[in-house]
Design goal:
This protein has 14 helices and six strands. With 303 residues, it is of the alpha/beta class.
Length: 303
């Protein structure tokens, strides 16, 4: 423990560490060693403001797992794959769909594996909220060789949190309806995909993660087939690389449930959005009235 850790409150220690160390500094990696690695990717999937950053910090605190800041770039690769003219052009050059898939996978993994090696870890987890909307591309690129962690949070709290936080995809002219519909679409997408990801998906509820963090993390570690570790008491002391996450998440020193912030809405708004979300909440595993989960952590026919 450094002298600063002993004399400064945790939140000031975190700020000082951010100022001194800043963003990540990747070390040189021996490519001959990297090429021998076969690492099963992990994608942490969840809508904005659903607890993805907290879960990323917890996972990143495990001795075998690293989780970089939001990567973003797969969205652009997905756009290339969805562009029919570009794919047709590859074909005219003699490169079929399988060749393009392998080259895209190799390109993406170069970044993840180099980052992982720099951190001296053996598994990596990507946490980028926009990737909810390119699950078809991720699954096309990796096939069966990928694990998913889905994290849910009730839609009304997500909506309220998005209203208070800058979310690029909702700007400008962000409003309650726009924020809610963004969550609603993401939730439907995750509901659809969780049926397809049998054996490769662990489902987590933000509310349960906050109420029972150790049990939740142990279930995730079991799913990922890594040793259980006590990350709950150490995650806020670790040097997590900074990215696009909410800066307030960097200042937390404990895990506290944030629930019911939508109570400030008018009765009309509350009734309308509760009714609009009721079926989706029910399918996700929430009580549509209390908006709290009815279940703990779920595996989809875990391996």
């Amino acid at each position: 423990m450094s002298i600063f850790s002993r004399i400064l409150p945790p939140e000031l220690h975190t700020r000082l560490r951010d100022i001194v160390f800043g963003r990540s500094r990747i070390t040189v990696v021996d490519k001959s060693e990297q090429e021998k690695l076969h690492v099963r990717p992990i994608f942490l999937i969840g809508c904005f403001r659903s607890g993805t950053t907290l879960l990323r910090y917890l996972l990143d605190s495990h001795s075998l797992i690293c989780s970089p800041p939001e990567t973003k770039f797969l969205t652009h690769l997905s756009g290339l794959h969805k562009d029919s003219e570009s794919m047709q052009a590859f074909g005219t050059m003699g490169f079929d769909d399988e060749y393009v898939r392998k080259r895209m996978k190799h390109f993406a993994e170069e970044f993840f594996l180099d980052y992982m090696a720099a951190k001296k870890k053996v598994r990596w987890v990507d946490k980028t909220p926009e990737y909810v909307r390119i699950l078809d591309y991720i699954d096309w690129m990796y096939g069966e060789e990928v694990d998913y962690i889905f994290i849910y949070r009730n839609g009304l709290d997500v909506t309220q949190s998005m209203l208070l936080q800058s979310i690029a995809v909702l700007e400008p002219n962000k409003n309650m309806a726009k924020a809610f519909e963004y969550w609603f679409e993401d939730a439907l997408t995750m509901l659809s995909w969780r049926q397809k990801l049998k054996g490769r998906c662990c489902e987590v509820f933000y509310e349960n993660l906050c109420r029972n963090p150790s049990d939740t993390m142990n279930t995730i570690f079991d799913f990922l087939d890594v040793p259980r570790e006590d990350v709950v008491d150490v995650w806020f002391r670790k040097r997590h690389d900074m990215g696009f996450e909410d800066i307030k998440a960097r200042r937390q020193t404990s895990i506290k449930l944030s629930h019911g912030n939508f109570s400030a809405w008018s009765r009309e708004e509350l009734d309308h959005y509760k009714a609009r979300a009721a079926e989706v909440h029910e399918r996700l595993g929430y009580d549509p009235e209390t908006l709290m989960p009815r279940v703990e952590v779920r595996h989809r026919e875990n391996r």
